[in-house]
Amino acid sequence: MSASPKHLELLAPAKTADIGIEAVNHGADAVYIGGPGFGARHNASNEIQDIERLVRHAHRYGSRIFITLNTILRDDELEDARRMAWQVYEAGADALIVQDMGLTQIDLPPIQLHASTQCDIRTPEKARFLQDAGFSQVVAARELTLPQIRAMAEALSSAQLEFFIHGALCVAYSGQCFISHAHTGRSANRGDCSQACRLPYEVLDAQGRIVAHQKHVLSMKDNDQSANLRALVDAGVRSFKIEGRYKDMGYVKNITGHYRQLLDAILEERPGLARASSGRTRLFFTPDPDRSFNRGSTDYFVTGRKEDIGAFDTPKHAGLPLGWVGKVDGEGFELELDEGVSPLNNGDALTYLDLQKELVGLRVNVATPLDAKGRRWRVEPNETMEQLKDLRRGVALSRNRDMAWDRLLEKKSAERRIALDLSLMETPEGLALQLTDEDGHAAYVEMPLDKQPAQQAERAEASAREALGKLGTTVFEARELSLLWSHPLFVPASQLNALRREAVEQLEAARLAALPRLPRARPVEPPVPYPEDTLSYLANVFNHPARDFYARHGVRVIEAAYESHEEHGEVSLMITKHCVRYSLSLCPKQAKGVTGVQGTVRAEPLQLVNGKEKLTLRFDCKPCEMHVVGKIKKSVLQQLPAAPIQFYRARPKTAH
């Protein structure tokens, strides 16, 4: 079943095919996963046979598989990327998620194209352009507000709008961060980010005074749009994307199950909307996003700018409140649990804040209850007590790994079934079984039978229902089962089982035959103009076909990507909607109206210092954006073998 504007798609991540299979089982309408290469996640690639295995499972439910081919590519890599695109297409994949426009200029298979978040889609004009250039799905920037999302959706006539609803947040506009490459030679645009945004920094003002000490001021809390799903549907979002291609199986099961339940509740309320795939998911646990890795939650800018979007104290997962330390000795400590907290387990991971507010972690080696109610516990940690800095009486503890929860998610934790109506009917030569699934696909199988009335009518009818209803190893479950015979017949169970199996096989084949390839959108001809006529290094153009793409669409000045090493001086290494001044209550706009302050607070630059690394923060207050400014290291210029590209011998003056 192909997605349309009336369908809501839950799009889940997968690091591996096995995780992707469980994402489907837990309710995903589509899964995005890396192929053998070029997938923007350095250690999340998958072989073609694993993609085939995932596709086979997903397509049984009408779920789709999207392959991430979303790095920027050098000219010498395009042939390998083209070959990979054909391999995943022949393996049955449904779409490619693409950042590099050069891919649109080469011999790709007729597979649907989706515009990656790395395309930095912030405006209705950019979204409309990508639709007109042949993209069927575009992902709106995570920084947009509801009115901006609505305006983008209204600008699209055929493409579907996708939006991230959960997971880690890049502080930069996606595709607009070059710090990793400048400092280490590891390019975020090529799937190898060093995550400078998660480091602690000294923040200095223009006079060199410390404004913040060792704070992770570029580290965001994690995205959670659970409360905004209805508003996002109303704004025009049709694909709801969970971040996390590095995340483990338990995370994907838990978060996919959580949003499956929330979207199903919306679908129940709104008969004009439907799922983008088939079947009903039953979970054998209660999803809880707070139990999976997170840095605290924020809805970011969807409902307007907020002060508490940062995870400034730590980029780690602190976990859920657990209790407090009662007594400490040389071998361990006593712990009193908060009311309603589940018992401790051997192997649980705990955290607390030391006196410098740094997060400290420990692992429970042996947990022993000290009272009948299970409120007081003796904990012997894996670590020595000398290693556990500032652990003392009264310290609050949290738990960021609960072994009982992990064991629950290691088991079978969901099943997904497609509703099926079965009708057993008499024919002149014997019996026939007709199956009709919830999507209207049907199968019909006959078998010859020497019709003998059953000696025990009730027992014969019960036996027939039992044999026909044995669908446990299939993707189906019986919704209605009708026995359309003039009187109960004697039918051996083995014959009914064989009849059912043959009919189910036929129905599965009919479902697969009826599942169309997602259509590749045709670019508008003649080519529509790109919204701008000049592109700087920020456009990430790293090969000649990409340059030709933009030239065909009317762009006159095209600079090479930052990775080409044409920008040796100070430039914006990150552009972000997050504002350190705002988060530290130093924004001039915040000061307006405050007596004695108005006019005295200016958006002067700040400096970030981490060891020898120094970055400058500049503030563009009109669009309310922050630029993190720096330059590429000489060592990176010398070490990187990536072929530099120069599209112009000398840059035209109009480029500046």
UniProtKB/TrEMBL annotation:
Xref: PROSITE patterns: PEPTIDASE_U32
Designated name of the protein: U32 family peptidase
Alphabetical list of Pfam families matching this protein: DUF3656 (PF12392), Peptidase_U32 (PF01136)
Organism: Roseateles flavus
Segments forming domain Peptidase U32 collagenase: 399-512
